[in-house]
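Q: Convert this sequence to structure tokens.
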Amino acid sequence: MSELPPEAAPEPAAVRPGTGRSLGALAGALGAATSLAVLEVAALLDPDGSSVLESVGNRVIDSFAASLKDVAVAIFGTSDKAALQIGTVVIALAIGAWLGSWLDRRPAVLLGGFAAFGAFGTWATAVDPQGSAVLALVACAVAALAGATVALGLHGRWSRGTPDAAEPALDRRAVLVRGGVVLGVLAVGAAVARSVRDGIRESRLSQAVARRGPIPSAATVVSAPEGTLDQPGPDQVEGISPYLTPVDDFFRIDTALRVPVVDVDRWRLAVTGMVDRPLELSYDDLLARELIEVPITIQCVSNEVGGDLVGTASWRGVRLAEVLREAGVQGGAEQIVGESVDGFTAGFPVEAALDGRDALIAVAMDGRPLPPEHGFPVRLIVPGLYGYVSATKWLSEIRATTWDEAGYWIPRGWAREGPIKTMSRIDVPRSGSDVEAGARPIAGVAWAPHRGIVRVEVRIDGGAWQEATLGPTASEDTWIQWWLRWDATPGDHELEVRATAADGDVQTDAEAPPAPDGATGHHTVRVAVR
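A:
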């Protein structure tokens, strides 16, 4: 059997690999990354509005909110928005890679895919109240063209190999490494563009708040009580939640991927719907009215038992009831719907606005104009109701209507009405902590806004319920601090808490998730005493 002639010996596979599906996928992913980078740069032209990627993210949230909301909040907490945006980018790159995998067989699939992505981005921005359809059309066309060109160009080069004989052809590993480097460069460029845009937005948001100056003093002020358990004194408990939550620590949960930039000089609050006298109020009109300031505890419906998506602030604003009476709510109205500048809506019973509770059109939080992330220039605060049905931020309209109109979360599987359930939490000691033996406090907070808490009980290792000492409180609309002296003995222990509201409702031990109307169960912590 003769040997093959030297000229017939096969070329080593590592020298000229061709593209294959994996390199086509890399070309598609790099094309998608190019498109995303172009869109981020284009967003610099409209730093106040929604970028194409933000508008696409908003549409994703709108479509999958019921399944994404609790998952994102449970995993990422108040970083849920960053996680959702990163997820949108990852999905875009994955789609680009899938489109690129067709390049060897049907390159038209990639062209059609990039065109479709551009069309979807244009549509998503056009229907976004804060988006610019014209800018989106141009940006998406350029991004789709640039992305497709990069993907096709890389695919063509890798298919041909390197024609210059003096330069060795790239092997598959080299292509992947260099592709990764290019992807990194594009990511850095996009991140720089986004950082610059964020800086511009932050500056404009700060200027918008600062330009309005201090909020007028309130005619009626309900102050936080003295002698709370977080203040220095004989009853102070280290580690307990402060009676008033610092603004910087206050939770933020909403559907806005980016805080809206509101031009307060042009902003107007419309009072419409089933009213006898529709109103239109400017920011100065609201500030000229009689303001009240009261502490109120608010909670997100996504809060798990023992969670921290709850807090108390001192809110200053105009009584919602006064504005509604001035407008003249008609007899057939069943709910009040608040609408945000970004299109979010939340509705609650008319009675909750008119039954005497301190429902507010809030303009200040802890003595300062509302921070942008908490609703500047104006938001709604309604004691006793979860935020998803009441706490509309960046308020633009108050509408009296019937239950036929559903707020944002209702068609997505959440309950129509959302009264906050009786709840309590152990802050001290923390679950999983080590505790020294001896006299130790068990302490925390309990809340049932607009009903108030009359009793908190603690159970240790499944024993008898022991009544805790309650701290002072400003009103039934805030949480209350509590504590119990515990003679801690060495070993592992389980601590459990329950609260009773003023209407007799005892916090249930039946465990339920947040959906569809708020979590239930007893907060339980496990500690080791040494």
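The longest helix spans residues 172-211.
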